[in-house]
Amino acid sequence: MTNTLHRFGTAESFFDDYIVIAIPAKGVKGRGDPMPALKRFLEIALEYGPVNLGDAMSGGAIRPTRHKRAVEHFFARPTRPDFNAVIAGISKPTTYAAVFDDKDSAEAFVARIKEEKLGLSINVSSSLENGQGCCAKAGVPRHSIGYSLGFEGIPDNVPNRHVMMLSTMCGHGMIAQSFAKKMIDWVKEGRCTPDEAVAYLSRFCSCGIFNPSRAKRIIDDARIKAF
Question: Which residue range is the domain that position 119 belongs to?
Answer without folding.
Answer: 3-146+154-223
